Known about the structure:
Blueprint: H1 10-19, E1 21-24, H2 30-51, E2 60-62, E3 65-70, E4 73-79, E5 84-90, H3 97-103, H4 106-116, E6 121-131, E7 138-141, H5 143-147, E8 158-163, E9 174-176, H6 193-196, E10 210-212, E11 219-223, E12 228-230, E13 239-248
Antiparallel strand pairs: 1-11, 2-3, 3-4, 4-5, 5-6, 6-13, 7-12, 8-11, 8-13, 9-10, 9-12
Amino acid sequence: MKPPAIALTAEERDQFEKLGYFSRPSVFTADEIDEMRCAAEDVHRKVLEAADQADAAPVEQVDNQKYQEVLGSTIKWEWNENLRAVRSMEPVFQIDARMAKVIDDPRVWGPCAEVIGVERLSLFSDKLNVKRPGGAPFPFHQEGPYWAYGAEDLERVITLIIYIDEATVDNGCLWVIPGSHRYGPLESLQDRGTLGRLYTDIDRLDESPVPVALPEGSVAFFHRDIVHGSQTNRTDQDRRAYLLAYQPEGLHQWRNGEQRDIGESI
Length: 266
Ligand SMILES: O=C(O)CCC(=O)C(=O)O
């Protein structure tokens, strides 16, 4: 018998099927969230320090975005006249054991195993997103087409976001288009350079996005094809989030090709 905190309710299952997502508010305690915040800041600091070393890998520019390989992580810079920060780091669990601990937490992976219908999982990807005050929007996109060329079992990859800070409309919470997962891979933006091909042309859809605003420590679970994005952080506080994706046991991670099975069974 699965602990009730993990078992999917009929309503959650229904929402996932119909809308492509469901959320669980305040899954993590204040102490756990404090630890995640410290870990996120330590990772961010270590990555910045490593990127500043003379022997660091070169910064690669794609359209208006800058990327770099640092500490085994692909980092995306948030680099403009006002800000020099790292916006996202993927993967990060190898940099800090406190992030790795979250991956093995059954409150996170248990619902994923149930949605996929397997007992045991392996990690597909982990990503830390740090949206500082003024941090830029993330255009609407689907994960499925983005992952298509690296996944060994794409149909059974499920993804989620853990809000390390409260996520509001003002600080750039995620927005999703409910039900959009049912369309499968959608038309991308054709006229926006290389990266445009990763972004979804939402003007072709009838449905409108809704915000996924939740307290700190909440988790929202997503279908890989749900269309989602986020707006700029218009507050003076950080909006940090940890994004995980799982797949059935025994498969390899997306970015680094390594295999990392999840610890216990439920
Ligand atoms: O953290 C965000 O604002 C956007 C997250 C997202 O959609 C992603 O990283 O794929």
